Amino acid sequence: PGRASSPSSSGGDEALSLSFLVQINKYDHKCASRSRVRGRMASQAWVAERAIPFLNKKNGMGPKELQKELQDTYKITIPYHTVYHGRKRATDKLFGKWSDSFDWLYRFKAEVEMRSPGSVVEIDTVKVGDKVHFNRFFCAFKASIDGFLGGCRPYISIDSTALNGYWNGHMPAANALDGHNWMFPLAFGFFDSETKENWVWFMEQLANAIGPVPKLAIHTDACKGLETAVHKVFPWQNRGSV
Fold first, then answer.
1. How many percent of the chain have pLDDT more than 90?
2. Helix (H, G, I), strand (E, B) or coil at 205
3. Where are the alpha helices (DSSP H) in the chain?
């Protein structure tokens, strides 16, 4: 027990004495302050603000993992769609919008060509109505071109991998072999699908980057579009496919 005193309501000097008893509840609390509850305050903006520290530590954290982290940290239940859109707001703030990244390609091209003269960076666009849309991209750095021509075998392996994310498509790549039989990156790019037209465009940019290479061997898979492109752009080289 304890004792406390306070001035009387009449403002006099007499003190009002009160007795109180402090007790400790040794059992688990089940009230809202301790258990997870569904809160209306967890809006998309709320999620975005609190997601930033988590995404700074792990920028590849997906909505499901972020949902679990936020719920465990703040002891509330947050709907998945709220976390999904809140995470998008946070990533836009941290890394910029996905749609804006296409405009940054031209700045990337200018920066590469300024700091690494001789590099080949090509951006292909299409016009739909009054708007210009990104279509294809190719990049071969000067160091990669010189390394291939001066220190690698006359062999190039070409293939592409599917991109799974906010924007789908394919990432074609050309790799060589150095004197240790290690893979040597030569060029890469982006396009929407493995069509004959896209592969011909990619191979034309590659041919422009490396020029004529005596006794060049090109290794591809059995993709018809790629095989046709190789025959068209490099009709004189040795070909192999798997």
1. 66
2. helix
3. 44-57, 63-74, 80-95, 98-115, 142-151, 196-210, 224-233
